């Protein structure tokens, strides 16, 4: 069966020349997260991908240092923010999308399968009927293969589940923003043991991305510095991943990858910020409703995960 969405994304990458997006990345070492501002300088339009709200779990305090650096860049360059794009509901950092939207505008978007993630975590956190499980907290829900644009630069959303059921990759011009699906070639791939995750599905999603033209620029959401490497890096190419990814390079079978990923995930600790992050991120970066004292609270389910 022809993958029409993938074919359209590949054709877009091959056709990209003058209409090439620029990318300015901001790295938050506390969460090892790369936030990307992708923009069309000719049109002065931009999108922010996977923003970070600073959070101290010991005190329960949030801060906006990371997001303010992004906002300062947008204002210094005179860029109009059209989109705040989330690749998925992150388990390792809180999204600053709602905060940035208040400062700069734009629409907050994620994949339409966020509803499945909301169903799962709605049960885990015992959220009542006041919590909608239809993705309505977001301004837009992308379907697989749906096209949009950043100024004059064409873009396509690709559904790449496995890490979570709702992961998206955004192909913007010749740049691919893969979220947590892939890491740098020397570090490998994302875990697949979160609720709704699936290692075999992750393999198929990765191979879908690796079928894109090799020259495509690939921007990642995280880097953890593989052993022997001194610097954080979050940009590579599709070709480099095909040849050198230690988990999923060309020639690795689905069965071998699934066995490796499952065994590896069984030894991993739960992400430090999973429980607070998900409660905010399934709400498009908004905090839970304030209680009668005006304070928002995050839940901690005991002995459940």
List the helices and strands and how they pair.
Blueprint: H1 4-15, E1 22-28, E2 33-40, E3 45-49, E4 54-56, E5 61-63, H2 65-77, E6 80-85, H3 97-104, E7 107-111, H4 114-124, E8 140-142, E9 147-150, E10 153-159, E11 168-172, E12 175-177, H5 199-210, E13 217-219, E14 235-237, H6 238-244, H7 254-265, H8 274-281
Helix pairs in contact: 2-3, 5-7
Plain-language structure description:
- The strands form three sheets. The protein has a six-stranded mixed beta sheet, with helices on one face. Strands 9-10-11-12-13-14 form a six-stranded mixed beta sheet. It has a two-stranded antiparallel ribbon with strand order 4-5.
- The mean pLDDT is 96.
- 27% of the residues lie in helices and 21% in strands.
- It has a single domain, classed as Metallo-beta-lactamase, Chain A (4-Layer Sandwich), CATH 3.60.15.10.
- Helix 5 crosses helix 7.
- The longest helix has 13 residues.
- The protein is built from eight helices and 14 strands.
- It is α/β, with parallel strands linked by helices and 305 residues long.
- A hairpin with a 4-residue loop joins strand 2 and strand 3.
């Amino acid at each position: 069966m022809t993958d029409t969405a993938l074919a359209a994304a590949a054709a877009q990458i091959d056709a990209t020349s003058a209409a090439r997006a620029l990318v300015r990345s901001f790295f938050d070492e506390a969460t090892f997260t790369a936030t990307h501002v992708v923009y069309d300088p000719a049109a002065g339009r931009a999108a922010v991908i996977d923003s970070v709200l600073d959070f101290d779990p010991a005190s329960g305090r949030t801060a906006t240092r990371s997001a303010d650096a992004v906002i300062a860049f947008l204002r210094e360059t005179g860029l109009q923010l059209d989109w705040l794009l989330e690749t998925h509901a992150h388990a390792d950092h809180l999204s600053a999308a709602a905060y940035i939207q208040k400062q700069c505008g734009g629409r907050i978007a994620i994949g339409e399968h966020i509803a499945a993630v909301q169903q799962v975590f709605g049960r885990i956190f015992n959220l009542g009927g006041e919590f909608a499980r239809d993705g309505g907290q977001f301004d837009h829900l992308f379907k697989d293969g749906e096209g949009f644009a950043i100024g004059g630069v064409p873009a396509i959303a690709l559904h790449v589940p496995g890490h979570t059921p709702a992961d998206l990759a955004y192909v913007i011009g010749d740049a691919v923003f893969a979220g947590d699906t892939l890491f740098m070639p020397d570090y490998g791939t994302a875990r697949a043991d979160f609720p709704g995750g699936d290692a075999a599905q992750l393999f198929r999603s990765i191979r879908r991305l690796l079928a894109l033209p090799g020259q495509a620029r690939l921007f990642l959401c995280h880097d953890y510095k593989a052993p022997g490497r001194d610097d954080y890096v979050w940009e590579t190419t599709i070709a480099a991943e095909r040849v050198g990814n230690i988990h999923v390079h060309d020639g690795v079978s689905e069965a071998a990858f699934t066995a490796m990923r499952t065994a590896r995930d069984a030894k991993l600790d739960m992400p430090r910020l999973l429980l607070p992050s998900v409660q905010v991120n399934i709400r498009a970066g908004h905090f839970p409703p304030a209680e009668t004292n005006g304070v928002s609270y995050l839940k901690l389910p005991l002995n459940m995960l």
